């Protein structure tokens, strides 16, 4: 769903330029660790950061990990920046990108990322749109490029159709699947953080599916 444009955000978002990149930062490719106070830490990336509840929560729980969140809608990522800026605890291990996942290989170098999060991605339910799903095999092959050899994807959705489609795509492209669940909240994962969307819909009794996919052992 495309949000109605709010003209004031275009100027207000510049307040967060210290940690929020408004132009796809292709000059940071293979240099992301140098953007952080502790460059030796692992690099985790969330595609589709939304308003930032998940990435902020993960950053607070895991100060030993550096996080990058990517979101294509300016009117959404603004609120992620606002959360980080207004956090009672100073957040030094998060960077945000206003950009589209279609250019990730230009933004992240080969083997630069340790872990990718895909949280409640657009399911694109119409059959003619299946190639737009972020777990379609073309995207999975792009993720292989930027992930380390032992890298992984953690995927969550409340859309059973998308989950089943994703399992098939992961298997077809050689990923190693584990920790598959169709009802995450009946057996919560220690250290997991809910997104805004997840919090809202799980309270209504919606089941959440989750899996971990490990990068195939190939060059």
TrEMBL record:
UniProt keyword tRNA processing present: yes
GO MF: tRNA (guanine(46)-N7)-methyltransferase activity
Ligand binding (S-adenosyl-L-methionine): 46, 71, 100, 122
Catalysed transformations (reactions): guanosine(46) in tRNA + S-adenosyl-L-methionine = N(7)-methylguanosine(46) in tRNA + S-adenosyl-L-homocysteine
Pathway: tRNA modification; N(7)-methylguanine-tRNA biosynthesis
InterPro entries reported in the protein's UniProt record: SAM-dependent_MTases_sf (IPR029063), tRNA_(Gua-N-7)_MeTrfase_Trmb (IPR003358), tRNA_methyltr_TrmB_bact (IPR055361)
Keyword annotations from UniProtKB, A to Z: Methyltransferase, S-adenosyl-L-methionine, Transferase, tRNA processing
Cited function: Catalyzes the formation of N(7)-methylguanine at position 46 (m7G46) in tRNA.
HAMAP family on file: tRNA_methyltr_TrmB
Protein family per UniProt: Belongs to the class I-like SAM-binding methyltransferase superfamily. TrmB family.
Protein name: tRNA (guanine-N(7)-)-methyltransferase
Lineage: Bacteria, Bacillati, Bacillota, Negativicutes, Veillonellales
Gene: trmB
């Amino acid at each position: 769903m495309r949000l109605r444009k709010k003209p004031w955000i275009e100027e207000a978002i510049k307040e967060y330029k210290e940690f929020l990149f408004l132009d796809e930062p292709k000059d940071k490719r293979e240099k992301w660790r140098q953007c952080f106070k502790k460059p030796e830490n692992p690099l985790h990336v969330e595609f589709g950061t939304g308003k930032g509840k998940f990435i902020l929560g993960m950053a607070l729980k895991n100060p030993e990990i550096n996080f990058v969140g990517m979101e294509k809608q300016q009117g959404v990522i603004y609120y992620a920046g606002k959360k980080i800026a207004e956090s009672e605890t100073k957040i030094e291990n998060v960077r945000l990108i206003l950009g589209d996942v279609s250019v990730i290989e230009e933004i992240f170098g080969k083997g630069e990322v340790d872990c990718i999060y895909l949280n409640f991605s657009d399911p694109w339910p119409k059959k003619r749109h299946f190639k737009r799903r972020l777990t379609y095999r073309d995207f999975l092959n792009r993720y292989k490029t930027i992930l380390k050899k032992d890298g992984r994807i953690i995927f969550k959705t409340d859309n059973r159709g998308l989950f089943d489609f994703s399992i098939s795509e992961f298997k077809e492209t050689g990923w190693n699947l584990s920790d598959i669940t169709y009802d995450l909240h009946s057996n919560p994962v220690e250290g997991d953080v809910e997104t805004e969307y997840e919090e809202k819909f799980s309270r209504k009794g919606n089941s959440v599916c989750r899996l971990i996919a490990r990068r195939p052992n190939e060059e």
